[in-house]
């Protein structure tokens, strides 16, 4: 079977178009995954911040502690939400509120993405909010037990 020049050109153009559509689909999927991870990190920040307020300055010691947080989120905190956050975010449960209070927004490490390709330093505003909350409990004149 012999293909004409026109058939070959049409075939090549079709392959390029299909490849381009595939690349667009993968790029969109990656963007959605990154955006979801960013939302989950922000939810983690809000939950930890709420937990700190509710517990009078204690840092959570486990994932389940986040289920008890009073939160400004427009939806209920559920085990499913915490599980989804856990897929995308790491929380250092060994750190104390006073250790967090000593960090700067750019060096904040207590809550970070699991995906090392995502940049935690881009979350400076959220980091600042949580650090400021920690400082309310560990600033001068506060005698909170900083071991937790």
Can you put this structure into words, describing what you see?
The chain is mainly α. It has a domain at 38-138. It contains four helices and two strands. It has helices at residues 5-54, 79-88, 97-101, 124-138, and strands spanning 89-91, 111-113. The chain has a two-stranded antiparallel ribbon. Helix 1 (5-54) packs across helix 2 (79-88). The longest helix is centred in the N-terminal third of the chain and has 50 residues, at 5-54. Residues 23-29 and 141-148 have low confidence and may be disordered.
Tag the structure with descriptive keywords.
single chain, mainly alpha, two-stranded antiparallel sheet, 2 strands, 54% helix, 4% strand
Structural class: mainly alpha
Tell me the series of helices and strands, N- to C-terminal.
HHEHEH
Helix content: 40-55%
Strand order of the largest sheet: 1-2
Write down how many β-strands occur, each being a DSSP E stretch of 2 or more residues. 2
Average pLDDT rating = 77
Contiguous low-pLDDT stretches (5 residues minimum) are 23-29, 141-148
Shape: elongated
Report the sheet-strand fraction.
under 5%
| Distance between the ends | 76 Å
Biggest sheet architecture: 2 strands, antiparallel
Number of helices: 4
What is the CA-based Rg, rounded? 23 Å
